[in-house]
Amino acid sequence: MRHQRRRPRRARLLLRPKRERGAGAATEARPAPEPPRNSDMGEMKRELGLTALLICPDREIQQRFHASQQQSRNFQVLGEFKSYPSPATLEVRLRQHSPDVVLIDVASDFKTACDLVRFVAAYKPAVHAVGLHRASDSTVLVQVLRAGASEFLFSPFDPAAQKDAVARLRRLRQPETEGVQAQGKMLVVTSSKPGSGGSTLATHLAHAIRRTSGQRVLLIDLDTEGGTVGFFLKLQSATSIVTALQNAERLDANLWSSLVSGSTGVDVLPAPEAPSSEPVDPNRLHEVLEYARILYDY
Length: 298
Prior knowledge:
Layout: H1 38-48, E1 50-55, H2 59-72, E2 75-81, H3 87-97, E3 101-105, H4 110-122, E4 128-133, H5 138-147, E5 151-154, H6 159-173, H7 198-213, E6 218-220, H8 229-232, H9 241-246, H10 253-259, E7 261-263, E8 266-269, H11 282-295
Parallel strand pairs: 1-2, 1-3, 3-4, 4-5, 6-8
Antiparallel strand pairs: 7-8
Helix pairs in contact: 2-6
């Protein structure tokens, strides 16, 4: 008799809902955990420290730095080089990990280390270089900073000094948004054929945004051959979008105020009363729109 090999039975995992004591009593569904708030995420990032690549051929510096991180956790090391990499190799790792900083041993080979500092300082998107040394050396400090390093730390890597350095690095990494106004949003309304209600919709939309948000709104009629926004709003204006295009290179606050007309809180740049067959220069239109985005929210 031939003995046929029996195929192993595949294990099956059956999941049944748990039931409470009693017939047909199903367990209550637990609510999903709330996602962390932005403030919580910021706190978590600060607790984890800045992400970093460590380039440290000097074993003593490497060991002392890691020992200091067990206490301070100011840096979260994502990857290490135990010898100086070539710029091409370092660039690959920078693209892979996208660290906040690169920690570079400047004691083992000062010239090679400074070349890497210069490479990191010029890298885009911005990454900050931090020099590491076995002792406090003012001459080395000045030269490393001149090469482009943002900070300089030395053994035994005092946690308080690291904390201060991380605070300065965080300030450098924050986008410089203070005093810089966000550009306005652009909404475009178009139609497939004349008379289908595009101008009416755009006009009502502009006034609705102004009424509900209270923000600064600009309505532009770009139909230079037959725009009807000015007629619909009963505007009496000697200027139009064509005037703005003709003066695109010299727009300023005084000129702009003479170009736009007001309509219940909405500034309007209408189409010309007489149809214009002159083609719209895209470069001039871009300049007008970008200038308007500085002045308006919509």
